[in-house]
Specification:
Elements lengths: L10 H19 L4 H15 L6 H7 L8 H12 L4 H9 L6 H9 L9 H5 L13 H14 L3 H28 L5 E6 L5 E5 L13 E3 L5
Antiparallel strand pairs: 1-2, 1-3
Helix pairs in contact: 1-2, 1-6, 2-9, 5-6, 8-9
């Protein structure tokens, strides 16, 4: 059944929406609350498709599905995680080409995983903490405008954005720690047999001497 406005998503757009659903499902199953899980999914798909902003991804999940606000998409995801994928399935098929319907069925047919009580989730069982801070006047106006456009309160929007950005920053920090803890690659000397020029580098390099044109041989135990 075609959508009332006649708008059919192109396959790349439909695949972006399905990627959001998949990433959201992973985050939600890992203990992240629904709204932050969706925001993290938007960010992940933006990075995966190398988009400059999340607007394109968010637009695909809201306007291109005939919805008015992001909260409408949240409710479709909530129903899916509650075991009823029919509203989301019907809307996706109404706004997509039949060739994408198989992928839609496969994505939404995945069993809803139990929501794990991770250490972060257990900590969130306590009363949420109140955090206050100041925004520049222009940022505050932008916050009000976006909240009104998405049909959510300023507090809800701010909490979702801060949570998503903070968790992304923590993940980046953890990856940097892993990189720092990795042992440095051992270097070995490469020496020209004719002029004696020497350079250092990892094992397995094929280097020519710039002055003689001879291949440099490797020797020594390295450092």
């Amino acid at each position: 059944m075609p959508p009332r406005d006649g708008a059919i998503m192109r396959s790349p757009t439909a695949q972006q929406v399905l990627q959001v659903c998949t990433r959201f499902r992973e985050q939600y199953a890992g203990g992240t609350e629904l709204q932050p899980a969706c925001e993290l999914a938007f960010q992940a798909v933006k990075k995966a498709y190398r988009l400059r902003t999340e607007t394109t991804v968010r637009d695909a999940c809201v306007r291109r599905l005939g919805l008015n606000h992001t909260r409408d998409f949240y409710e479709l995801l909530r129903a899916w995680m509650g075991g009823d994928a029919r509203p989301l399935l019907r809307l996706l098929k109404e706004h997509s080409h039949p060739r994408d319907h198989g992928d839609i069925d496969s994505c939404l047919a995945m069993p809803v995983p139990p929501k794990h009580e991770s250490s972060a989730a257990v900590a969130r069982q306590d009363e949420p903490e109140t955090v206050s801070f100041r925004l520049h006047a222009q940022d505050a106006r932008s916050l009000r405008a976006v909240a009104a456009y998405e049909g959510v309160s300023q507090g809800e929007l701010l909490a979702a954005l801060v949570t998503a950005a903070l968790r992304e920053r923590v993940e980046v920090g953890e990856r940097r720690l892993v990189i720092k803890e990795q042992p440095a690659t051992k270097s070995i000397p490469y020496t020209c047999g004719r002029c004696g020029s020497q350079v250092w580098g990892p094992r397995g390099l094929n280097i020519l001497c710039g002055g003689c044109g001879e291949a440099l041989g490797s020797d020594g135990d390295g450092r």
